[in-house]
Amino acid sequence: MYLKITLLIIFLFSSTCYAQRLDNLGKAKPVTITGGFSANSIFYNGTANRAPFTYFLNGNINANLYGLFNIPVSFAYTNQQFSFNEPSFKINRLSIHPSYKWVATHIGDVSMNFSPYTLNGHQFTGFGFDLTPNGPFKISAMYGRLVRNREYNTIEPQADPSYKRMGYGTKIVFDKNNFGVGISFFKAKDELNSLKVAFPADLRITPKENLVISLEGRITLLKKANIRVEVANSALTNDLRAERIKSNKLLSGLVNNKVSTVYHHAFKADFSYSIGNGSLGLGYERVDPQYQTLGAYYFNNDLENITVKLNQTLFKNKLNIAINTGLQRDDLNNQKQSELNRIVAAINLNLKANERLNVSGSYSNFRAHTQIKNQFDYINQVRPYENLDTLNFTQVSQNANLNINYALSQLKEKRQSVNVNVSYQNTREDQDAFLIDIPKNDSQFINGNLAYNLTLTERNLSFTGAFNSTYNTITDSEILTLGPTLAIAKQFFDKKMRTTFSSSYNTTAKDGAQQGNVLNFRLGATYRFKEKHNFNLNIIQLFRNTIAQQNVNDFTATLGYSYSFSSRKKRKNFGKTVKDKQKKKQKSIKKIETLLKINYKGYHFEGPPSSITKQIDTLNTTFQYTEKSKQQNLSILFEKIKKSEKEETKTYKKSVQNYLDVYDAISISFKTYQKEVKEILRELATDISQAHNGLQKRYI
């Protein structure tokens, strides 16, 4: 029923808008089709437990009707089978997104966002739409399957069964210039009869139902102060099979209230005020313990944050500082064995000292759901989709990062730079909502990277040399991994083909004892043919030598092709021969001029002489009411500048300086004249005001 009503609304909106634009039907092409297709195949030969051949197909097509309607369709398919894939996530998917003016629809395997506390990026198979007219109202809605049912399989007991879960929701926002309010509604429910095969009770998988309502608002005061508030209420039934009971909770009348039904709240408020070249802000957030929404894959709860935010740009935009600090605590209901109270802080600095040196640094100690991954995860992986499902855990961590980039040379034909990156992380794990309180359970991750890059522009050639290192302390173990990397990139055939070669070697030691080493070679090539066809080839050969297993060789080759098309016809230049093109190319080469920088008496010009001359020419309009003799003198000096464009650099600069000497003298006298005029106008305004007041007292 909900889906039928939604479709009817879309039909009515589309029909109404279409009737208003019938006059445009003859002005645009009836049908314009654009899109693309890509196919990638992976060949593997090694000791890992994976298929020797895998392919991925992706495509998208968009049909535009009369320049009014857009009907995009996308699909993805692969023969890759993941043994432990999340039941609610589909690898093979198809989505269509027809749109018309301010009406956008989403059909198939899609995702939408209402609010961080309601529907937040959860993929569903169904239908949704966004209505964003020019007025203050914005409406979004969705309906579909959030999780597909999966039966229990004794062959793969690690793959948990799941009930079929359906959901629907809507969001309505009223937004004006300085004021806005919105409401989000989301409901999800498992189907009791979607599973036929019995499964062990110790898996603790139960049919659930969830209803979440969120209210949000914002207001702008004095054009500088902004206030945002959001409050959410979630009713979650953990087991629909439980006994029904009565409740006087706020949302109890909208759900099947059971013994297992729990109600939780979330609240967030932000205040910001613009100061100088930045802003000052204050934030507060509180999320009840066990707060959960079935419209998100992961959610942090049992926390209270009070934060102060400062963002400012200093020293003529060379330094940017962003500070976010405050207080954080958990165990809001005093039910845990341990409580965490700490000062949280995040500091980001970006310094552009000059044209060559850039420095950035950051520090934070926030609680975050993070996956630790260093550069060796990329260096040692043998396929693009490796390390996707590694251990995720909540961290109470400290993070620091420093990046320094220095350009040794910035010549047009040769560029050199050095980059240094150091990151540090101290982590304490929190799994299954309980803090693992084990001595020495803290982990430290220190990553370091030193890289040198050389680019020869005219030869389309670049070299990169780097040295990577990672030092980890996990429980009582110390692990050190380090090694060099060399990379070369070259472009051919007028930059249509790009080739890369890289090699890395790294060795790992644990508690001082050698654990193994890895040597790999990578070869890649991409080629663009007639702007529509793209070919790519990547080959990885990896040699791994470890204590557990000697001489492991992995070979991976990835071959890909992509094609983009459009029914729009490009304009062609007829009548031009090869000789004409060569002449045009020779003319363009002659036009290349030397780049200059002129800083004189506070005036700054940069570029080729012809460009600087045009910039100076714009100055002539400033003194159009000056004496004619002075204007003629400037015109004579300007003509000398134009004549000296093709002469030596010193001659051209001298002509510019002579012009600026006269121009600056006129500018000083003109500013004095403007100052006197303003003073006279101010006195006239005072006299007029006094005369007006005198008349008002006399006759009123």
How would you explain this protein's 3D organization?
The chain is an alpha+beta fold and 700 residues long. Among the domains are: 27-39 and 353-384 and 393-568, Porin (Beta Barrel), CATH 2.40.160; 596-699, no CATH class. It has helices spanning 2-20, 375-380, 578-590, 609-617, 628-643, 649-699; strands spanning 31-45, 53-65, 69-78, 93-96, 99-100, 103-113, 120-131, 137-147, 165-175, 179-190, 209-221, 225-237, 261-275, 278-287, 303-314, 319-329, 341-352, 357-364, 367-370, 393-410, 414-431, 434-435, 443-456, 461-474, 477-492, 497-510, 513-529, 533-546, 552-566, 596-600, 603-607. It has a 29-stranded antiparallel β-sheet that branches. Strands 30-31 form a two-stranded antiparallel sheet. A hairpin with a 2-residue loop joins strand 30 (596-600) and strand 31 (603-607). Helix 5 (628-643) packs antiparallel against helix 6. The termini are far apart. The model is unreliable at 1-25, 82-88, 368-373, 387-395, 431-440 and 585-592 (pLDDT under 50).
Keywords:
about 15% helix; Porin; two-stranded antiparallel ribbon
Please report which band the strand proportion falls in: under 5%, 5-15%, 15-25%, 25-35%, 35-45% or over 45%. Answer: over 45%
Question: What is the strand tally?
Answer: 31
CATH superfamily of the domain at 27-39 and 353-384 and 393-568: Porin
Helical segment tally? 6
Q: Architecture of the domain at 27-39 and 353-384 and 393-568, CATH level 2?
A: Beta Barrel
- Average pLDDT confidence is 81
Distance between the termini: 72 Å
Instruction: Characterize the biggest β-sheet.
Output: 29 strands, antiparallel
Rough outline: globular
Q: What is the radius of gyration computed over CA atoms, rounded to a whole number of angstroms?
A: 33 Å
CATH topology of the domain at 27-39 and 353-384 and 393-568: Porin
What is the class of the domain at 27-39 and 353-384 and 393-568 in the CATH system? Mainly Beta
Uncertain segments: 1-25, 82-88, 368-373, 387-395, 431-440, 585-592
Helical content, roughly?
10-25%
The structure class reads: alpha+beta
